[in-house]
Write a structure and sequence with these properties.
Elements (H helix, E strand, L loop, with lengths): L1 H6 L14 H21 L27 H17 L7 H25 L1 H9 L5
Amino acid sequence: MYVFATYFPVFTLLEPPLTQLAYVFVGIGLMFDFSSLVLFVLSKTTPNPLKPANASQLVIRGFYQYTRNPMYVGLFFLLLAWAWHLAVLTPFLALPLFVWIITLQQIQPEEQALEEKFGESYRAYKAKVRRWI
C-alpha cells in the first residue's frame, strides 16, 4: 500500500483532519482481532491459523456468530485504516487483493481442515454463518 501511495499516487481522496478517521478503523480492527483471540484463549483452543487441525473445539461466540473469520475481518479493517491514512486512491486497490489472497491461501484450507476435524457441526456452522460479513 505504501508503494502504491508513494510511487503511484492516483487522486488524493482525503485531507487532514479527515485522515485521522483512520484511527476509527484501527479501533474496529483491533476490537475484532483481540476479542476473537480472547475467545480462543477462554475456549482453550489454538488460535494458530497455520494449524487449524490442532483446534480442540469450534469457537462460535462473539463475532464468530456473524462471520466465520473475524480475525481476518479485523486485519481488513487495519489495512483499510492504513489506506485511509495514506489518503490516495491506489492503496485501496490492495483491499480486494487481500480478500482474494487470504480466501484462497488461508481461509479455504482452514475450512477444509475444520470440516475434516469437526464434520457435521462445522458444516452446520458454515451453512449458518457467512465467510466474511
